[in-house]
């Protein structure tokens, strides 16, 4: 990557990939003590996608990336940087990003790294990519991808009904167009909530052992209520912050493409932020919570469907494990 003039960044292409296999709430009724009615009422989720045996995180990421490159009319060799936001990497070492680099045919000298900010990952990724663009990079690939079905405890009804697999990607490119691009962004984290959403086993704090496996420590654990409250408060304040920074009022927001975790969270965020609820683009009914992938999947769907049109303001906001959260405002 060679330094060039500082510029603003703009998304020039998006893509997404979700596995074919659909797991419905009805299917889950056969696995754990739950009902379609409970899941719909408490979350808004009806079904989610599950990766095929043998399919891994970098496969899904590469599929989404190829679609984003095609939409941006770029080749993988045009990329100056690859950022993969994920908490479900192919393996602890090396990064998933290097597998994506080779799978899509990017240059072997293209820098590539993973970024772990859980559900906040795509907002973090866009913000980091924007800084690289301002520092001289021309095209940066940002991917949000999760294969949560492999780390979910399928015997725990409080978590297994929530999550799904998928990938979304965006190409951020340098632009001189003052009318379009990323306008403002904000990132935050509060480690006091670290134990509210985590996979406690399998890392350096609790290496894999027969005991950790027996105690199911390598699966997702969540205090849903604590995360719910943190999400409502912080998503609303981060959203208002990026609007204020860009001089855009809540009534001027054309679209909110939020992290898709729970409909009730988004109802509350709409109420607190003063952004009309019908401006929120939603697809969690079909995919569940895909963590860092949820915003780029929804963004790509909304763009391809023609819902988001040129010149419209689009607000993205997400909060997840950490807790880590952020918001990004752009003009499409
Ligand atoms: O993406 C990262 C961020 N994650 C989130 O944003 C998730 C945030 N949290 C949430 O979305 C919600 O807290 C949940 C959907 C996870 C849970 O909804 P809730 O309304 O907070 O339910 P709760 O945890 O307070 O549980 C209420 C009841 C409990 O029963 P008791 O103790 O009242 O008898 C649970 O055992 O619902 C029970 N329950 C279920 N019942 C049927 C929990 N899960 C289920 C289930 N089916 N799947």
Q: What's this, in brief?
A:
The protein has 332 residues and is an alpha/beta fold. 33% of the residues lie in helices and 24% in strands.
Detail the topology: elements first, then pairings.
Layout: E1 8-17, E2 21-24, H1 25-29, H2 36-43, E3 47-50, H3 57-72, E4 81-85, H4 96-104, E5 112-115, H5 121-134, E6 139-147, H6 157-160, E7 165-175, E8 181-189, E9 197-198, H7 210-214, E10 221-222, H8 224-246, E11 255-258, H9 263-273, H10 284-287, H11 294-304, E12 313-320, E13 324-331
Parallel strand pairs: 4-5, 4-6, 11-12
Antiparallel strand pairs: 1-7, 2-3, 6-7, 8-13, 9-10, 12-13
Helix pairs in contact: 3-4, 8-9
Bound molecules: oxa(dethia)-CoA.
Oxa(dethia)-CoA binds at residues 34, 38-39, 42-43, 119, 157-158, 161, 224-225, 227-228, 231, 261-262, 265, 289, 291, 320.
Q: Which ligands occur here?
A: oxa(dethia)-CoA
Name the shape in a single word. Answer: globular
Could you give the distance between the termini?
26 Å
Named CATH topology of the largest domain: Peroxisomal Thiolase, Chain A, domain 1
CATH architecture of the largest domain: 3-Layer(aba) Sandwich
Arrangement of strands in the largest sheet: 1-7-6-4-5
